[in-house]
Design a protein that fits this description.
The chain contains six helices and eight strands. The longest helix has 14 residues. The protein has one domain: 3-Layer(aba) Sandwich (Rossmann fold), CATH 3.40.50. By secondary structure, it is an alpha/beta fold. Helix 2 crosses helix 3 and helix 2 packs parallel to helix 4. It starts with a strand and ends with a strand. The protein has a five-stranded parallel β-sheet, with helices on both faces. A three-stranded antiparallel β-sheet has the order 2-1-4, with helices on one face.
């Protein structure tokens, strides 16, 4: 099992003297889904960017203890897909030899219409692109997944399907999801963290 623990101590971050995070502490463990809720502009995305090393804190520490070489992967607010690649090619880029192309196709069928799997991503709807980004993160080797508002653009039926898939594929991993919806926390069976 790819177990990991994320420990954040005294984390602070400001932009042009405007504090976004102040002496923030958090400890997360694998095998659980954590749902981070807070108003827009409260620092949720900044926290994820700091955890991923995309930004540096003003002070404090972020420690990822893990039992594998695999680290954290992310679903950003923007999908960050290769627009000229098919959904399957986008996913295969991160799975490497861990999953065969046939296995990626089988998994993709679970969240996407078959006719969409070989088309360039740029031709897909926003909701389909979102599902490709989620599939890519869930199928990549990792000990944990950070998801920044992953259900944007999904209707309720599709969101329920995606949430079931997340729960299945994230078993044993550390999952941190930002959301504005309390019902998402309930559907995920997540632990609510308020910001």
């Amino acid at each position: 099992m790819n177990s990991c623990q994320l420990i954040i101590k005294g984390l602070s971050k400001s932009y042009q003297a405007l504090p976004v995070l102040e002496a923030f502490n958090m400890e997360l463990h694998s095998g659980r889904i954590y749902c981070l809720m807070g108003p827009s502009g409260s620092g949720k995305t900044t926290l994820l960017r700091l955890i991923l090393g995309l930004e540096q804190p003003d002070c404090g520490s972020i420690t990822l203890k893990k039992s594998t070489d695999a680290g954290l992967v992310a679903v950003f607010q923007e999908n960050r897909l290769c627009e000229s690649f098919s959904p399957v090619d986008n996913i295969c880029m991160v799975t490497g030899s861990v999953l065969s192309r046939e296995a990626v196709l089988r998994e993709s069928y679970r969240l996407l219409p078959e006719e969409s799997l070989r088309r360039p991503v740029r031709t897909l709807s926003g909701g389909m692109k979102r599902r490709v980004a989620i599939l890519r993160a869930l199928l990549a080797p990792s000990c944990g997944i950070l998801m920044d508002e992953p259900f944007t653009g999904l209707d309720e039926e599709t969101k329920a399907l995606v949430i079931d898939y997340i729960k299945e594929k994230s078993a044993g991993k550390l999952i941190l999801i930002t959301t504005h919806q309390e019902k998402d926390v309930a559907l995920l069976g997540g632990i609510l963290l308020t910001f």
